[in-house]
Specification:
- The structure holds two protein chains of two kinds.
- By secondary structure, chain A is an alpha/beta fold.
- Chain A has two domains: 8-261, P-loop containing nucleotide triphosphate hydrolases (Rossmann fold); 286-373 and 453-583, P-loop containing nucleotide triphosphate hydrolases (Rossmann fold), CATH 3.40.50.300.
- Chain A has 20 helices and 23 strands.
- In chain A, the strands form four sheets. Chain A has an eight-stranded mixed β-sheet with strand order 16-17-18-13-19-20-23-22, sandwiched between helices.
- In chain A, a hairpin with a 2-residue loop joins strand 19 and strand 20.
- The longest helix of chain A has 18 residues, at 192-209.
- By secondary structure, chain B is mostly helical.
- Chain B folds into two domains: 2-62, no CATH class; 87-299, MetI-like (MetI-like fold).
- Chain B is 78% helix and 0% strand.
- Chain B is built from 13 helices and no strands.
- In chain B, helix 5 (87-122) runs antiparallel to helix 6 (127-141), helix 6 crosses helix 8 (170-200) and helix 9 (203-210) packs antiparallel against helix 10 (215-227).
- The longest helix of chain B is centred in the middle third of the chain and has 36 residues, at 87-122.
Chain lengths: 586, 306
């Protein structure tokens, strides 16, 4: 580039404040940044860094009436957006600056057809007739590689998958060829293979139209994949700014260095667990043999079963003491259902053996006693703690349910647990809302540990946490394993995290295991195409290793719902050496 | 859809059967003796016994109920003890008036309630919002006979805008409909407000704003259809409340509907009429709920009737 690139958006000394219960709080402080034509600027940071607020401020969509721009200017070309009234701002939104959001599931209106939602914005900003707008909408859908664009116009959002919906959002945003596209965590809610496709699509369209993109993300892998320039934010302030290559190779600020260090990486991760030999195991903690979980769907006059969801189809594995088995796969593959069956939360068929006792043959009380050995930590630390109970009582509750220890002893045990997970005993009297996300997850871990279980099921337990918090929680889990010898069934969609924590890995697809082996077998020598695809799809947090092109798969993962009588084909697992099991390609 | 309707129809019949059994049992256990009412005070014990036998009231409960049911299947609701005519005829002649009143009342409560709720939600936190919510609270808590008498006094007696009572023109319809509608309007205003506030917070409303749509389009095209869904489910339940209110309101306004018929019958323990009106009301409630459920998928494509 010889000439200085044309400046399209210029933010100068932007301050945004939000009024809360404790008065006004500044969420963006003195932010200045510039966006050139055709460039991709990534704003990266953890939750509460003010990155989303910055985006909303540009669109003048700050939460009303609490949020406001307290000072600064946002210039689009020669216009200062902060001085525009609502009517004139409306002409900017959608037409010159478009935005896509994190949640494709909720960002489209459920009661309006895709066509209606696409054409209405075209009609709002252009003088096109309805027929012309429709034509333009079809072109926009084709541009985001949606097949059968014309018939899609009649569909409703709930009839599309998450990835498809996000593509519709992108089509909607780009139909009017805006100067600036703001994408706020556009792939965070998507499966990793879908994320790869959507990112590639964004990059493609940007090059075609010369759109400037502001990409807001917490994922340094996505940053490395997409950014020309990067702005790192923390607590509402810019910490560091620079070319993507420089930020990753020579981070200047201490915070950037910490952030990059905390990112889980496949392969060379620093937090990676040592390879541990298969312990010439005493009895397995848990054994699952030929597990099936099916949900019936009713229909017809008498509500007979007409279709069936084959959520889990003949899954078998075992977990040894002190071992971490990771169950990976994308949404709908049955990994969480498997965990729920193991924890006794859904009816199943097949055998679940915990501590040498088959649950199927036991009475209610015996089953309850056996289940003490299996505890669960869930994904959302905000939703899995009762907001009306003190956290100390929450952790003590499993002890109460199983009638263990006197009141005084319980208190002592809970205090010790708090201490062990990195909280203080003084915090036992607080309520869940007084903790941060990471602290809440620690409370959940303490609760799971209360009964000294032999197996803890961690269902996406670190997925909702910021990377730096995530790294610390993972460390805690590893420490606890060393100390108590507890086994983990670690369920995750995040291959990098799995690679860091697991001893063995099982990959699930459509309710069945397609590959299982030690971590090194699966990651260094993935045999099944789906496993390879999962590993490849993970964005590498290194701009030098940017993928040229992600293998495109424009088809959807098939549904696990089938008609009665049409059972899915059972995959046979073959040992390809040293216990590395791979499904034969069908 | 057909399968769904079939299943719902079977359910509805079971509900009606249950209602008939419970009502019949309650009336059987009632300490008041219908035969005494018919025979009058001066009747001899012999006459009373004759009438009792004639009406079959000396039979055991199960037999009485069985007779009633078998006749019911052929559409025969029995004969009124007092009015000496077929209950079916009485109800059929009075039903149109009640249905008209109900339609007027639903119109009133939807118009008033939804408008109030919508405005309150959009002006949330302002004095307008608070005023509307206080008004809706008054509407919800005021007893219907008080509202009716108040409306009568102001608009019929003092202002003479509407007739005091009776039946015939649209002007007769206004005050009773309003009386019935105000209660529901209060509920709807509150429900619409909270539903609308909830919808306005949704991501898709933010998307609509980010697209640069006009306020009107956001409010009426994107928010309203979503917000109105829970309200529609309410209309079905509402018909039940109407059936209770209709007895009071028809009496206050001298409206010749089934509510008035029921009131007269209750005073004189005219069991066949009470049974008939109860069954017709139950039928209306079941039908109202079914209609509300059938309308819902037309507004929300996610709802499938299965």
């Amino acid at each position: 580039m010889t000439s200085t690139p044309e400046k399209i958006l210029d933010i100068a000394n932007l301050c945004v404040s939000v009024r809360g219960d404790e008065g006004e709080r500044e969420v963006v402080s003195n932010l200045s940044l510039m966006l050139a034509r055709g460039e991709t600027l990534c704003i990266a940071g953890e939750s509460g860094s003010g990155k989303s607020m910055t985006a909303l401020a540009i669109m003048q969509l700050l939460p009303q009436p609490a949020g406001r721009i307290s000072s600064g200017a946002i210039r689009l070309g020669d216009t200062d957006l902060t001085t525009l009234d609502e009517r004139r701002m409306r002409h900017i939104r959608g037409d010159r600056i478009a935005m896509i959001f994190q949640e494709p599931m909720t960002s489209l209106n459920p009661v309006l057809s895709i066509g209606r939602q696409l054409t209405e914005s075209i009609e709002a900003h252009t003088g096109l007739s309805h027929a012309q707008a429709r034509q333009r909408a079809i072109e926009a859908l084709k541009a985001v590689r949606i097949s059968e664009a014309e018939s899609r116009l009649r569909q409703f959002p709930h009839e599309l998958s998450g990835g498809m919906r996000q593509r519709v959002m992108i089509a909607m945003a780009l139909a009017l060829e805006p100067d600036v596209l703001i994408a706020d965590e556009p792939t965070t809610a998507l499966d990793v293979t879908v994320q790869g496709e959507v990112l590639e699509l964004l990059r493609d369209l940007q090059q075609k139209h010369g759109t400037s993109v502001i990409l807001i993300t917490h994922d340094m892998g996505v940053v490395a994949e997409m950014a020309d320039r990067v702005v790192i934010m923390r607590h509402g302030r810019m910490v560091e700014e620079g070319k993507a290559a420089d930020i990753f190779a020579r981070p200047q600020a201490q915070y950037t260095r910490e952030l990059l260090a905390a990112v889980p990486r496949i392969g060379a991760g620093t937090g990676r667990q040592e390879t541990r030999g298969a312990e010439t195991a005493s009895a397995n903690v848990a054994e699952i043999k030929d597990l099936h979980v099916r949900f019936d769907l009713h229909g017809g006059v008498f509500g007979r079963v007409t279709r069936r969801v084959h959520a889990v189809e003949g899954v078998s594995f075992s977990i040894a003491p002190n071992e971490t088995l990771a169950l990976v796969g994308e949404s709908g593959c049955g990994k969480s259902t498997t965990a729920k069956a193991l924890a006794g939360l859904v009816p199943y068929s097949g055998d679940i053996v915990v501590g040498g006792r088959n649950l199927a043959g036991l009475g209610r009380d015996e089953r309850k006693a056996v289940r003490r050995d299996v505890q669960m930590i869930f994904q959302d630390p905000f939703a899995s703690l009762d907001p009306r109970m003190r956290v100390g009582d929450l952790v003590a509750e499993p002890l109460v349910i199983h009638g263990i220890a006197s009141k005084e002893e319980r208190r002592e045990r809970v205090a010790a647990l708090f201490d062990r997970v990195g909280l203080s005993a003084g915090q036992m009297e607080l309520y869940p809302h007084e903790f941060s996300g990471g602290q809440r997850q620690r409370v959940c871990i303490a609760r799971a540990l209360a009964l000294r279980p032999k197996l803890i099921i961690a269902d996406e337990s670190v997925s909702a946490l910021d990377v730096s918090v995530q790294a610390r929680v993972l460390d805690l889990l590893k420490e606890l394993q060393r100390e108590f010898g507890v086994a983990y069934l670690f369920i995750s969609h995040d291959m990098a995290v799995v690679e860091n924590i697991s001893d063995r890995v099982a990959v699930m697809y459509l309710g069945q295991i397609v590959e299982m082996g030690t971590r090194d077998q699966v990651f260094s020598n993935p045999r099944h195409p789906y496993t390879r695809r999962l590993i490849e799809a993970v964005p590498v947090p290194d701009p030098a290793r940017r993928r040229s092109r992600f293998a495109r798969l424009d088809q959807e993962i098939p549904s696990a719902t089938r008609r009665i009588g049409e059972a899915p084909l059972k995959l046979a697992l073959k040992d390809v050496g040293n216990g590395h099991l791979v499904a034969a390609e069908g | 859809m057909i399968a769904y309707l079939g299943r719902r129809l079977i359910q509805s019949l079971l509900i009606l059967l249950g209602v008939s059994l419970i009502t019949f049992a309650l009336l059987y256990l009632l300490p008041a003796d219908p035969v005494r009412q018919i025979a009058g005070r001066s009747a001899t014990p012999q006459t009373v016994e004759n009438i009792r036998q004639q009406l079959g009231l000396d039979q055991p409960f199960i037999v009485q109920y069985w007779h009633y049911l078998t006749k019911l299947v052929s559409g025969d609701l029995g004969r009124s003890y007092i009015q000496r005519s077929e209950v079916t005829e009485l109800i059929v002649s009075r039903l149109p008036a009640s249905l008209l009143l109900m339609a007027g009342a639903i119109l009133c409560e939807l118009l008033i309630g939804l408008t109030m709720g919508l405005i309150a939600a959009v002006k949330r936190g302002t004095a307008t919002d608070q005023t509307l919510m206080v008004a809706s609270f008054v509407g919800v808590s005021a007893p219907q006979f008080v509202v009716g008498l108040l409306l009568l006094y102001v608009f019929a007696v003092r202002l003479s805008w509407f007739p005091i009572g009776g039946y015939g023109t649209w002007r007769h319809l206004v005050l009773p409909s309003l009386t019935m509608g105000i209660l529901g309007a209060g509920w709807y205003a509150r429900m619409m407000r909270s539903s609308m506030i909830d919808v306005l917070r949704q991501d898709y409303v933010r998307t609509a704003r980010a697209k640069g749509l006009a306020r009107r389009a956001i409010l009426f095209r994107h928010a309203l259809p979503n917000a109105i869904l829970p309200v529609i489910a309410m209309i079905g339940i509402d018909i039940g409340i109407f059936m209770g209110g209709i007895v009071v309101v028809e009496s206050v306004f001298g409206w010749p509907g089934i509510g008035q018929l029921a009131w007269q019958a209750i005073q004189r323990v005219d069991i066949p009429i009470i049974m008939g009106v109860t069954l017709v009301s139950a039928f209306a409630i079941v039908l109202g709920n079914l209609l509300a459920d059938i309308i819902a998928p037309f507004i929300d494509p996610r709802i499938k009737l299965r």
